[in-house]
Amino acid sequence: MFDEKDLILEARHVTRRFPSAGGRELVACNDVNLKMYKGKTLGLVGESGCGKSTFMRFLVWLDRPSEGEIWYRGKDITKIKGKELWQMRQHVQMVFQDPSTSFNPKMKIRDIVCEPLLNFGRIKPSEKNAKARELLELVELPGDFADRYPHNMSGGQRQRVAIARALALEPEIIVMDEATSALDVSVQETIIELITKLQREKQITIGFICHNLGLIQSFGHQIAVMYLGNIVEVMPGEGMADICCHPYSKALLDAVFDTKMDFSKKIEPIKGEPPSPLDVPAGCPFADRCPHCMEVCRETRPILRELEPGHEVACHLFEGRGTA
Ligand code: SF4
To answer: Which residues have C-beta atoms less than 6 Å from ligand 1?
Structure first.
């Protein structure tokens, strides 16, 4: 499916536990194994609180897993510290959901986009003007926006500035945390077009966190579906709607609103609420909401097994097919 020589980051058995009241534990990520490939987008999808942001935060060193390893550039990056960590930060950058809260409102756009370059000594202060214009034009904004403050721009323009800032250090990987969900639908589309164009030109690897499976299937090369801290399905983005088979992934797809206003398609909300992450069932975490739940689902947690190259699913319905 993907060429293993293009593998640039690999998470192995990553688990994150948070202590909770009464000596209990909240497991935000449970034994997550994922791979990211050069120039490709990995979409991580699931409902709020499923652990997708927790996982992506490990890639930008905003948190560290309790167990497991993340290999990048020949190193387990969960263990690096000090100068080595500082150097490594240049290669992985992040775009947050709401740029208005990730910018200092007192800084001009010029200073915002050039701050990473100055921090790493890549430019001199005298080169700021020219570099800011270049970065703004890269994200299809007029160069003279460099003189503006964030509040003088629309939400879509601010998100372009956030992308320009993330691109400034020419990173190999960009993590985007719900980077379009705070934007109008029409603006979302132009931002996705920009991201995919820049990815093609610069061969950037993108980790895109999203709760909308319909959106990510339009540009994700690889899609991982997460439920209550567990990866339940990994599949290629192309043709995803035809091959996705985990009952939760299918429920997410059925819940996507059809923008073509096809009223023959009924939107099916997912029934019930997810269990408390402090009280995850012993068997399949989706058992309480799954229309296909069987006895074995309540007792034994299904493990991810490969159905075909690039397609893995954790569900007892597919036991006996593929390899664990
Ligand atoms: Fe449903 Fe069972 Fe599959 Fe879980 S393992 S998704 S409960 S069929």
So the answer is: 247, 284, 286-287, 290, 292-294, 297, 302, 315-317
**What atom in ligand 1 is closest to the CA of residue 246?**
6
- For the chain, the structural domain boundaries read 4-103+172-318
CB 204 within 8 A of CB 23: no
Find where tokens 């059925």 sit: 254
Closest CA to 159 of 203, 113, 119, 116: 113
**CA atoms in the 13 A half-sphere facing the CB of 164:** 29
- This model's pTM is above 0.85: yes
Write out pLDDT tens, residues 273-311. 788 888 888 899 999 999 999 999 999 999 999 999 999
Q: What residue type is assigned to position 85 of the chain?
A: L
Integer CA distances (angstroms), 182 to 49, 148, 159, 255, in order: 17, 21, 10, 19
CA of residue 226 to ligand 1 center, whole Å: 14
Percentages of the chain per state (helix, strand, coil), in multiples of 5: 35, 25, 40
Per-residue exposure over 295-313, b if at least 16 CB sit within 10 Å of its own CB, e if not: eebeeebbebbebeeebbb
**Ligand 1 center to 273 CA (angstroms):** 16
- What stretches in the chain show pLDDT beneath 50? none
pLDDT value at residue 322:
59
Q: How many CB atoms lie under 10 A from the CB of residue 281?
A: 15
Q: Which atom of ligand 1 is nearest to the CA of 302?
A: 5
CATH code, residues 4-103+172-318? 3.40.50.300
Q: Which two tokens stand for residue 218?
A: 């339009």
CA-proximal residue: ligand 1, atom 3 (nearest): 315
Determine which residue's CA is closest to atom 5 belonging to ligand 1. 315
